[in-house]
Structure formats: C-alpha cells, structure tokens
C-alpha cells in the first residue's frame, strides 16, 4: 500500500538564476571537485570498456552491487556498457562521488546509481545500485528524457544550503514514510522522477511533490548514508527501504533556496516492480 500511493500520485499527477558569481566551497580534506571529476571520468571510461582494471584501484578495493560485495568483473562489469547520459555530484568533505548513469542504447537498458570512495589518490570502493526491467517503475528511456531536461547546475552561494541542512531535508523526507508529522521543506515547483515515472511531465510551474510520499505509512528507511554536494545543492541518501535487509534504494535531492526542487529515486526490487502493478498493467481496462 505504501508504494501504491506513490504509484497512483505519479499516474495522475524554475525560477531562473540571476547572473551571480558562483564561488566553490573550500575543503580541508584535499579532495576537490576537479580531482573527484577525474576519478569519475576514469570510472566511466572503464565502464564503457567493460574493463575495471583501467581504474586506479587501491589495494584491496571493494566492488559492491545492490548491497552485495562481489568481484570486479562480475555483475554489471561483464560486458561494456555505453553511457547515454550521466550526472555527478561531488562530496569534497568525504572524498566520495555519486553518479546517475542511464543506458538506453541496447536491448537491455539500465539506470545506475554509482558511489565512488577515494582514498590515498585511488578508488577504494565502487558501489553500484543497478536497476533494470523488473525494478520500481523502471523506464530508462523516460528517465533519460526527464533527467536530461532538468537543471542541476552549481548554485550561487546565496541559494545554497549547508551540509547539515541538506542532510536534514533528506532525513525529513525519509521520515515521512513512517511519521506523517515530519516537516519536509517542499518547494514549488517540485518534480519527482521514480524509475522513469515523472510527476511533472508538462512543466507546470506550480507543481508539487506532496502527492506521492505516503502520509499514513509505517515503512522504515534505514542504514542511511549521505553524499553531499553543497555547491550543487544536492544530497543523495543511500538507504534500505523497508527496515533491515530491505530493498536497496537511493534518493537524490536537489534543493534551491532551502526548498526541494527535484527528487530522483532508484529502487532495486526483489520481485517485479516491488510487487505492485506496472504502469501498463494499471492502464488496462
């Protein structure tokens, strides 16, 4: 029932930036946006070649796919994967990155959420959330269509939120699934992209995101980990949906002026569409 509410809302359901100088936040960790982008570029090159050995891997580097540690060369690495669209955020405080990767140019489309952990100038961890045909509301072509239309540029300093405020907003959204009183900083307009289903396909300037998250739910989103890009106004939460050993899930939030503008969701299901009717099944008379 929890996901069914969100599913129903998706079926029925920008302010321009002034010319301001964008100043990048400083960090004491030694990681920079430019440096982290370089590691992402090397990862993407390795992915498109199906060759993880091309990455600068640390000794003992780990590969994790849908929350399970497996060997490099297995899982999504078994053959080259073209990247038809990608967007990255960079956490200079923790030396981590998160990249949304969309593949539509073969008979087996995918949408990936990839975390890289950098340590001692090498990639220490690669973690992929891999979604495809049987996962939550999956439609890679629509994911590509709507994600590529959105604006996720660097924000002027006056429109940014600090690290803790971004994490607080993500936690407030996650808490809604079990606590209807959670105070989520919703923005107007706001759009959610879940697996490929989009809540604002017509670009309504008054669109809201409040129709989907359940208000009477008892679902726990646990084991929350966050990657934060203050300059982009973005935070991704990697969680288990449905308590311990729940479904692997990521929610990526974009905040502008302290309010949620975009939410992107990837959920790997253990049964087709997490046990709910697909959009095509729902549309049948």
Would you give an account of this structure?
- With 285 residues, this protein is an alpha+beta fold.
- It folds into 2 domains: 2-13 and 154-271, Nuclear Transport Factor 2, Chain: A (Roll), CATH 3.10.450; 33-131, Nuclear Transport Factor 2, Chain: A (Roll).
- It is 20% helix and 33% strand.
- It is built from 5 helices and 12 strands.
- The protein has helices at residues 2-12, 33-49, 140-149, 163-176, 279-283; strands at residues 57-65, 68-70, 85-91, 96-103, 110-119, 122-131, 186-194, 197-198, 221-229, 234-241, 247-256, 259-267.
- The strands form 2 sheets. It has a 6-stranded mixed beta sheet with strand order 2-1-6-5-4-3. A 6-stranded mixed beta sheet has the order 8-7-12-11-10-9, with helices on both faces.
- The protein is globular.
- Residues 1-23 have low confidence and may be disordered.
